[in-house]
Design brief:
Two copies of one chain form a homodimer. Chain A contains six helices and four strands, in the order αββαββαααα. The first copy, chain A, is of the alpha+beta class and about 150 residues long.
């Protein structure tokens, strides 16, 4: 079963880090890690199974494209529940590099680096190398020029 | 590893039966079972791994959409190499019903049913319930009305 879940995530899973403007934060940007899995609503069994397996995350129906999406955004849950699984049962494709990058970002967030200008820039650079990346080059430049030094 | 492969196929695999006009055959239609897996060319590792695991099928690059596709069309290979795997490590979603339907079609083909009018109709009906189906309702009617009795 654990190995089955890794195989499923290798095809359908998404490991990402998004960075969005957030004026209320001192650095002006919010870092949000995410692990997600989508499936057509008419065969959501594996999404439910993944939810029950990891014991975290939320399931959301998207009525526009009739999919069901499981997603974990909590740093605590990603670090405690999700990453240890993929450490023990890694993906066998290049997507495992996204897992490794997400793990590095989460580690830096646990040390509060996302709240410090230099740390934020490093996280943005790491995130930009992930696929699919929520961060584009111009956004990194925007982050670098916008944050207080 | 076997379980990983089943998890991957649950998301990305495709089990199908296509039926196409073939005037050279007495029944006028050719039945072609298929097991396939596609992936973006830039992370084809799992496709290669699946090829090496099943020891059958072919890998084809589709330059139009930059994907790599592994596919088995040989009845012998599907029956001897692919189906036993999914019998022992079944898919955990509703897609397993496609595997079961493909297995029934292959069994009937081994008995030569696809070369007989009544067998062909039964196969076409089974195939039409698969998802994604290569056969639409009007095609079944076309088959039923076209074959010699």
């Amino acid at each position: 079963m654990p190995s089955y879940i890794s195989g499923y995530f290798d095809g359908e899973g998404c490991f990402s880090v998004s960075i969005s403007p957030r004026p209320s934060l001192r650095v002006g940007w919010e870092v949000r890690p995410s692990v997600a899995l989508s499936q057509n609503a008419d065969r959501r069994e594996v999404v439910d199974l993944v939810h029950a397996y990891f014991l975290c995350g939320t399931i959301r129906r998207d009525s526009s494209d009739r999919t069901v999406k499981w997603e974990v955004r909590s740093l605590r849950s990603i670090v405690d529940s999700v990453l240890p699984h993929f450490d023990r049962w890694p993906l066998l494709s290049g997507k495992q590099s996204d897992v490794a990058l997400l793990a590095r970002v989460c580690l830096q967030m646990e040390q509060g680096e996302h709240l410090r200008p230099q740390g934020l820039i490093e996280i943005a650079r790491l995130a930009s190398t992930m696929n699919p990346s929520g961060i584009r080059r111009y956004e990194i430049e925007e982050i670098e020029t916008s944050i207080p030094r």
